[in-house]
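Morning. Coffee machine broken again, so started the prediction first thing and wrote up yesterday's gels while waiting. Chain of 408 residues, entered below exactly as on the submission form.
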Amino acid sequence: MPVYDYQALDAKGKTVSGVIDADGVQAARQKIRSIGSFPVNVKEVMEGGSAKDPRSVSVQSLFNRVTPAQVSLWTRQLATLTGAGFPLVNALTTLISQTKTQGFTKIVARIKDSIVEGNSFASALTLYPSVFTPIYINMVRAGETSGTLEIVLQRLADIMEKQQELKSRIQTAMAYPILMTAIGTLVLFFLMTFVVPNITTIFEDMNQALPTPTRFLITASDLFKGYWWLMVLLFVAALVALKSFRKTERGLAATDRFILSMPIVGPLVKKIAVARFTRTLASLLENGVTMLPAMEIVRNITGNVVITGLIENASIEVERGQGLGLSLAADAVFPDLAVQMIQVGEQTGELESMLYKIADVYENEVQSSIMSMMAMLEPVMILVMAVVVLFIVLSICLPIFEMNQLVG
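Came back before lunch.
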């Protein structure tokens, strides 16, 4: 069924816009009138997402990117509707009008059309791999096969909400330090390029040797003032080089291995990867996906190729008949506590529930670690800024003190 962008006037005469699916332009206009609006402009949307108008150039696609938070909310709404007894097609039709982002609205409309044409829900989702991950699609497929789609959707919503909550906590905790770093850098740049040169000009006519801190400050100030553009250029070039290096297989492995070896960041990255791995694996196993396909699905969600390689090796050992816990214990990267809990789960026959517990444990540890790090980082940053400012003040004051002594 085609999808249409429209502009209309509501009952109060205000201009409204949106997306609607209908069999044709006239049917679309009739649908718009049925919701109490008068259609002004109705254009069919092409597969790429822009209206069928050769004179128009769509730039909305730049702002219509579907975010994980939107997919999470949509999944929760779909789970609620299907759990309340709505047929899947009716539930999707209801969500078309409730989805705020036009790009996502078009995707939902096309998914509904694909299902009406006789395709499965999972097959319809595969049309949009950039929006729905392989884990999402495989869990939906398992839910359709077992007849528990509404339960699977609820678990998917739970997983995505947990991930979004953890991501939000990390971003919130990092916001203040990043802001303080940016402000401190700007203040230091202003002092070294504008304030210090104007003050140190009074020392040029002195016929005595300046103190070492003062000479160092003047040299640093001259470098900042004369070559700040080169410093910025080198910084940007370093970032570009690092990004290009990480695009190579060898570079990605080297940088990920280095991240894991870092004193504070490494253990934090491990905990995040373990929590993501265990929670997703538990959901897949609980919804009927067997161990080997589940391991194949979750191996790429850790965000670190070193841990991904460990999971691949463990999958090979599991295929040979070895337990998951022993397979993961072969490399020291995977935490001992997680390995032991997995082994207990395998022995007791409650692997899924134990995997959920592991995820809860490490997610809580990640949150506690981040909060502790941020609590320590704030005073450290203030102390560093205070030391830098004190050095500048002393470097300026030392020659003045010496001149006063000579005059006295």
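The longest strand covers residues 3-9. Going to sketch it on the whiteboard this afternoon.
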